[in-house]
Design a protein that fits this description.
The chain is an all-alpha fold. It has 2 domains: about 35 residues, Orthogonal Bundle (Arc Repressor Mutant, subunit A), CATH 1.10.10; about 140 residues, Tetracycline Repressor, domain 2, CATH 1.10.357.
Length: about 200
């Protein structure tokens, strides 16, 4: 066993978090062990604790890194002086890009967050609810401005986000279109379905 290998952009902790996301996605948070993670990273299990406190800290880091990126993009999009449809498209492209290029951590954040412990669990659930409400508010604004069909905004958000979480099956597919084509297809379907 040696040292944790990094590149110039990543700290050792970043490497551990990235490998943990892969392990948690493959085995599930509950079933994954720190010993397995140490083997994947290439160090003794005890060495992991020089960089992180616990398995639960890893889940916390993964979930809140993703949630904070979602909040940040929402702040940016809400502030832009563009149509509601353009705002929705930007958010959807962000989500699709996350599922294509940062699949492990986005997947874990979306599926394994229930294993967070309080107060983090409550905080994370609140962030998810708030994000969806803000997304729905953009759709409501588009309906008011007659840019978007009269639909239930909350249902629309759930459908769009669930469709994007389905990109998981694209990762498993043996015959798949490339990520850019996938994004364009999804935007055509999801944004096109909202237009008046």
């Amino acid at each position: 066993m040696g040292r944790i290998k990094t590149d110039s952009n990543l700290t050792r902790k970043d490497v551990i978090i990235s490998k943990a996301a892969t392990l948690f996605r493959e085995k599930g948070y509950k079933a994954a062990s720190m010993r397995e993670l140490a083997d994947i990273v290439g160090v003794e299990a005890a060495s992991l604790y020089n960089h992180i406190k616990s398995k639960s800290e890893l889940l916390h880091e993964i979930c809140f890194n993703v949630a904070n990126r979602f909040s940040h993009i929402m702040d940016e999009v809400e502030a832009e002086k563009i149509s509601s449809l353009e705002k929705i498209e930007k958010l959807l492209r962000f989500h699709i890009n996350g599922m294509v290029h940062h699949f492990e951590e986005v997947y874990v954040s979306d599926r394994e967050w229930k294993y967070l412990s309080d107060p983090y669990l409550s905080n994370f659930q609140n962030q998810r609810r708030t994000y969806r409400k803000r997304f729905a508010a953009i759709i409501e604004d588009g309906i008011r401005k007659k840019e978007i069909k009269k639909i239930d905004p909350t249902t629309a958000v759930l459908i769009m986000l669930h469709a994007i979480s389905g990109i998981e099956s694209w990762h498993r597919s043996k015959q798949k279109i490339n990520g850019d084509e996938l994004e364009e297809n999804m935007i055509t379907i999801l944004v096109g379905g909202l237009k008046k």
